[in-house]
Amino acid sequence: MHNQLQEKFRLSVLSLIGVVSVLGITPFVFIRYFQGNTLAAIVDLVLILGIVTLVGYAVRTKKTRVVSWIVAVFINVGVFAIVLINGVDSFLWIYPAIASTFFLVRPIEAIVINIILTISCVFFSNIFELISLVSFVITILIVSVNTYVYASRSEKQFRLLESLNIVDELTGALNRRAFSSDIEQALSIAERKNTPYMLAILDLDHFKMVNDKYGHAVGDQVLKDLVTITTDNTRKYDRFYRFGGEEFVLLVPDIKKHQAFIQNLRAAIKKELKTPDGKEVTVSFGVASWLPGATADSWLKSADDALYRAKANGRDCAVFID
Questions:
Q1: 263 contacts: CB under 8 Å, gap ≥ 6
Q2: CB 273 within 8 A of CB 251
Q3: Which residues pair with 202 in a beta bridge?
């Protein structure tokens, strides 16, 4: 889910830059061609075709991170080439190139690219015969600092939005929205690579009694403790979601000894999850392995059926459907 949000954001930025590039640069292709500046017209045309091709590739492959980097470098190299060819007549194109770089790559990466562009212009172009070098450096610095601050704040706000979008506010586990996205991705990977996946539904036993006896504040703490214990006893790439109320879902990739994995987790929860007076809180598991041809609904239903059987068997146990 996290990657998908970033992917959509980068894709929107790439698409916008593609549209702006076509609308902004295309007139100069004709202007420079009819002025007899064929080389500059060719560079402008290559910029347009290159950016459009790269954006199209990003839309088709979803490799937005790599493409954003290539587009950022491509734009800066293109602007540098235009400045070398046209000199002071194309000097102002440096500023939009610097600003756009901050929207394509991370702020610190944009700073590095912009420093390289600035140094290249200082040492290899002849524009400073007509333009003050000091003014150029200061204006570039002002544009870079302001854009860096804006891009950094935007990146922080985007990360906060991502967190609010996919994380359960109470427990810190991933939420149902994240699960809906991740299970589709898991199914795709499992089908393509025949990767062994496991889906487990966890339900706290007699949780209503905990709330009734100790209050909802204690009940909330029990839910938080469950997430902490589960996270501590699973791998960093296993995904744990709050599905609703006291029901959670665990999505585990590349797992073979899944029964031992679940039994160890169940034992750890039973040992560590306690009420304020030290009474244990147990969990029932319904576990379903991935099978070829499974859909999100069918896979989830298999795990839910297994959970129903675990509850019927007296709770505090795990039922596996392979």
A1: 318
A2: no
A3: 248, 285
Among 3.40.190.10, 3.40.50.300, 1.10.645.10, 3.30.70.270, name the CATH number for the domain at 176-321. 3.30.70.270
**Please, which residues bridge with residue 240 across strands?**
250
Domain ranges of the chain: 2-164, 176-321
The token duo for 53 is 């091709």
Amino acid at 23: L
For the chain, where are the E strands, in sequence order?
Answer: 198-204, 239-244, 247-252, 283-289, 318-321
- Inter-axis angle of helices 176-193 and 133-166, to 10 degrees? 90
Q: How confident is the model at residue 304 (pLDDT cuts 50, 70, 90)?
A: very high
CA distance linking residue 249 with residue 196, whole number of Å: 17
Q: How far apart are CA 171 and CA 222, in angstroms?
A: 9
Q: Specify which residues 285 forms β-bridges with.
A: 202, 318
**Which residues participate in catalysis according to the annotation?**
246
Q: Please tell me whether the overall predicted TM-score, pTM, comes out greater than 0.85 for this model.
A: no
Radius of gyration, alpha carbons of the chain: 28
pLDDT of residue 229: 96
